[in-house]
């Protein structure tokens, strides 16, 4: 594969920072299936919120928020920088914070 087909995902969690290389266009679920990350998943359908992450940098490199995700984020009174990783595809370099 061409290097431009990959992006860097940096995850901050409990004072540590880990960087991963991931194929563009795939979601956080695919990243977590291949790597041990601090992101947890349960419902995978924008119903539980366990996979919420705070986007620190590169929010423009994530897939647009769909209506289902936005409805859940609104109900949870989430910050504008928060996303449900189960609903998000990675299109470029991004840095996120996982607090759960």
Write up this protein.
With 100 residues, the protein is an alpha+beta fold. 16% of the residues lie in helices and 29% in strands. The protein has one domain (3-97): Roll (Ubiquitin-like (UB roll)). It has helices spanning 28-34, 67-75; strands at residues 6-13, 16-23, 52-57, 82-84, 94-97. It has a 5-stranded mixed β-sheet, with no helix packed on it. The longest helix is centred in the C-terminal third of the chain and has 9 residues, at 67-75. The radius of gyration is 13 Å and the shape is globular.
Major sheet: 5 strands, mixed
Question: Which fold does the CATH topology refer to?
Answer: Ubiquitin-like (UB roll)
Overall mean confidence score, pLDDT: 95
Number of E-type strands = 5
Structural class, from secondary structure content?
A: alpha+beta
How many independent structural domains?
1
Q: Runs with pLDDT <50, length 5+? A: none
**Percent of residues in beta strands?**
25-35%
Count every helix, treating DSSP H or I runs of 4 or more residues as helices.
2
Shape: globular
Whole-Å distance between the termini? 34 Å
How do the strands line up in the largest sheet? 2-1-5-3-4
What would CATH call the class?
Alpha Beta
Tell me the radius of gyration: 13 Å
The percentage helix is 10-25%
CATH superfamily: Beta-grasp domain
CATH architecture level-2 label: Roll
Pattern of helices and strands: EEHEHEE
